[in-house]
Every structure is written in C-alpha cells, then in structure tokens.
Amino acid sequence: MKNILTILILTFSLTVFSQNKKDYLKQNRFDIEKSDFKFPQTDFKIVGFGAYHGSAKTYDAELRLIQNLNKQNALDYYIPETNFSQAFFFQQYLETGNEELLKELVLAFQTIVSQEGTIETFEHWKNLRLLNQSYNSNPIKVIGFDVINEYKFPIKHILLLTENIQNWKSKDELNKISTEKDFDFSIRKKETVQLLKNFINDYETNKNIYVHKINDTISFHHILKNIAQNFDGERDREKIIFENYVYLKDIYHLETKKQFAKYGFFHLEKEREQNYPSFFTRLIEQNVYERNKVITVIGYLTKSEVLWDKVYDKQGNYQSYTTEKGYGIGDYWKEYFKGIKKLKNTKLSDITLFRLNNENSPYNSGTDLKEVKLFLKKSNGKVLKGKATTDFIDYAVLISNSNNQVPIEEMK
Q: In what side-by-side order are the strands of the sheet with 335-337?
C-alpha cells in the first residue's frame, strides 16, 4: 500500500510539473516567422546561437534573429565560426559583393564546419549583405577568433598586409603557391607548413627590415601567432578561441559593442558539462562578462534532415553527398533531447523561440533540453547531476520540417 501511494504521489508530481512546463512554454513562446517578432532581451554583451550543423532552416532562424537585433539597434559585430583572416575576407565580401571570393570562403569554411560548405551558407552571406545595405548607417561587422584550419586565407591576408614590401624571398614563395590553381592549403600539407615556418622565422630574424612597411602590424602579428600555434602539436581549440577573443576585445573595444556569435552549441554553453569549459563558459568564469550579459540560444530540430557527409573519390574530387534524418537531429527514438516533446507540443510555427531563463522558470531545475537519451546506452544525465537547463542555455528555438543543406559543389 505504501509503495502504491508513493508511486501515485510521484506520478501526480511529475504530471503537475509537466503541466507547469507546458503552461510556462505557452506563456514564453515567440513566432520568429512573424513580422512583429521581437527578441526579448537586448541588454547583453554577447548572444550566441547554435544548433546541429547541416540543417537549412537553421540559417532562416539565424537570419531572423540577426534582422531583429539589428532592427532594435542591438547588433554591432557578427562572430562566425571562422579564423581571423576568413572573417576579414567575409567582411570584404559584405563590402564588395564579390561572389567568386564568397564561394572560395564557403569552401574554406567547411574546414572547421564540415557540414556547412554549402549553397545555404553561400546564400546566408548574400542575405547578410542585403541586410547591411538596408541598415547602411549601422552595418554589422565581421570578426573571427577560431583556430586556423586552412592556410589559403591567412596567406592571402599576409600578402595583403605586406603588399608594399618587395624582394622578400619567403613572402614571394607564399605568393607563388597562392596563385596555383587547386593548391592544397591543408594545415597538414608539409610543403605549406615549411614555407610558413620559413616565412615566420625570416620575419622574426629580420623584423627591423620589414615591420615598418607592414600595413597593420597588430593583425599581422596576430595571424603569425595563430599560424605558429599549429606547429605546437595538439591544439586546445576552446582555449585558443578564448585567448584570441580576450586579445582582440581590447583592440576592437568589444566590451562596448553588441555581438552575435554563430557556433556549434557546445561552444556556447554557459556551464561545464564535465570538466572542460567552452568558449562562453570561459567568458563567464574568467570574469570577461557577467553571466547575465552572456545569452545562449540553442536550436533543436524535429521532422528535419541534415547534410551528413560529402563523398569524394580517391583523388579528392567531389562526387555526391549523404543526409541524415535520424541520428544527427536530436529527435529520433534512438537519440533525442529529454523534454523536446514539450517544445513540439507548444510550438507556434516551424521556427518557434522559447524563453527559458525567467526567474520563475521550471527550467531552473531539471535537465530538459540538455540531457540526451540514447537507446541501450547511458545518457549524459550523470554528468549533469545537480545542474539545470538554464545553467547552460537561456533560449530554445524549435526548428521543424527543415530540409538538409546542399553542398556548394552542387550549385549550378
């Protein structure tokens, strides 16, 4: 009898709690697709948006968030998942509209985000350019803090910064490979690595000859430092992203700017899941910004498909691609986010935003939308013990009925 009573009380408690969450979500949901959508918080330093890679509608959600923040005069810098030089040339695209450059950038972008060297990424940047033209009095600026995962754009940036220097042998060698069609700029290509080592050593040895002729020594030295980090063996990516951010924050006065970061969702978590801190966690733990000035928005997929892999032949030529609509979207019977059903039952449209971080939020306890349930495998619930959803994230975006992204190689 006692056991039956305990079960009944537990069942009743869970039902009430579930209803509280459902009611809460209904009171704190926003249809991003509506023309009058308004992002609820603008008193932030940095807001991050992330989701599983490879979904087409993720870019729709991102663009609508950016458009609204821009409309509210709450956006100055856009931070894509790129290195410093890639961001520099994405900025150049926004200013010039050079689509040949943009296509090269999209192909380079996939060296860090493999599922987004796509037509949708290409079109996203075109949309950002249109947005900048609409708000030409306050256009967004692009800046990047990530590791260098390809050498094409860092070398291109170096050559631009040193364009006034003639008869520099190690620079001329970099210039030669930069003009070779189909050259492999992989960070693992020994020839390229050696040329860069020679260039950096030459510069350090003869700095007094070159330094006063360089267009922007701050950017130049920053690029060389990040290239050299690739020579040190295994990299700590989050540490490098954070240190790059802290260094450039003072130069670009980012503490006075509104920033929007688009990253995979781990990088944007505001709390440690295990013992390794993400980029956003480091911003909070090391007192760069107060916790409530760092906002995390995470996208969740349902009834959607994602680009999974590009298929290449033995010579490295693109052949085709694969997609996934089970694993890889977080709403599959073998792998799903705990609590995603509540979002599905309360959504307003195919792109619905839910605010989770209100003071009275039931998401201030429990692990919904953080714990991943796996068939016949242990979830991550154990490492989340004692933590709550809003320790990690502030908002959830449910993205429904999304097609997969399509490789840019398929663009006609």
A: 331-332, 335-337, 372-374
